[in-house]
Fold this protein.
Amino acid sequence: MISQHMKKLIQKSEVISSLFADGRNLKQQYGAENVYDFGLGNPNVKAPESINQTAIKILQEEDSLLIHGYINSSAGYADVRKKIADSINRRFDTHFDEQNIVMTVGAAGGLNVIFKVLLNEGDEVLTFAPYFSEYDAYAMNVGAVLKAVPPNTETFLPDLNTFEKYITEKTKVVLINTPNNPTGVVYDESIIAEIGCILEEKQKEYGTNIYLVSDEPYRELVYDGAEVPYVTHYYKNTVVAYSFSKSLSLPGDRIGYLVLPSEMDDYDDIRQGTEVATRVLGFVNAPALQQKVVAECCDELVDVAYYDANRELLYHALQKYGYECIKPQGAFYIFAKTFISDDMEFCKKAKEYRLLLTPATSFGCSGYVRIAYCVSRETIQNALPAFQKLAEYYGVEMKE
Ligand code: PLP
């Protein structure tokens, strides 16, 4: 008999697993090219050519015992961490060294590591709805509880007055994600600075430490010149969870890192804790070959212009067909209001038009869907008549 905890997780995962299953079935029935799968954030843009070349070179030149062996520090290779720290310093005017970087198994691994280090049973993780649906499980993994500030559906930017009221003496972590999955919004400097000020005050008021964890797999995927402030400049108790899954299109390689600023409270314990957590969670260390590869390629980027063109095409078409959505400034998602309040029902109807969308109930914001446009241009072009018919089915008028 499986655990009660896992039973609940399986129930919660059913939305995503049924999306996979429906996608497979529809593709078998109609052929993959006739199914418009906007369900998952799996990048369609290829990794830069240099990734494979670098991997091949490393495999040919490095000692095989080293590159396939356990790494003597769970934090990762020191030379890799140094190169990554240098790259962050160059780009964001920071002063990190290898002691501030811990290599992780993607952002997911990094979040689980830092939660394991920081959270006691019953502690609260506070985030903003809508949020990446796995956050609930990551908090639960360590017996903590995820609380969400209700969505501000005007702009999908954080409502900081409400945020302040949601912080309690149990709040140990505030988790932000910008550019955001699922809305595509980017928090500007004033928002980040204000979050920092509020947390400073709340720490004083409660006499606690509140850590700001910034989940940043989409940092470089921004459009129209949007800037993503480097959060450690605004609040000293900040941990950055970064990933190469999207910036280099390497989601299957499972590689990312945590940034732990030396000036944060309890830095030594936290730093040591991340090594132990990496081990005891069973990661042992982030993949050795991928560490070496990203150290050489961490200043490179996938073709963001491809996503930008997808965004323009889909956003303008959806507007024309009468969908209500804000223009995303980052990541690769459009968050659209459903024409009925039940987003699950809406997604079922969309499937009749062979459109696979993700209901936003799973992101803590019902009445919306997430449309992942990290697909081929052709998929978007072919899907447009289906989006139009879906709007027509609900009697929505086309805009000129
Ligand atoms: N956080 C957010 C907001 C995400 O969208 C994702 C993946 O889509 C992750 C974390 C996990 O990313 P990774 O593949 O780096 O573990």
Observations:
- The longest helix spans residues 4-30.
- The chain has a mean pLDDT of 96.
- The pocket of pyridoxal-5'-phosphate is lined by residues 41, 106-108, 132, 177, 181, 215, 217, 243, 245, 251, 256 (CB under 6 Å).
- DSSP finds 13 helices and twelve strands in the chain.
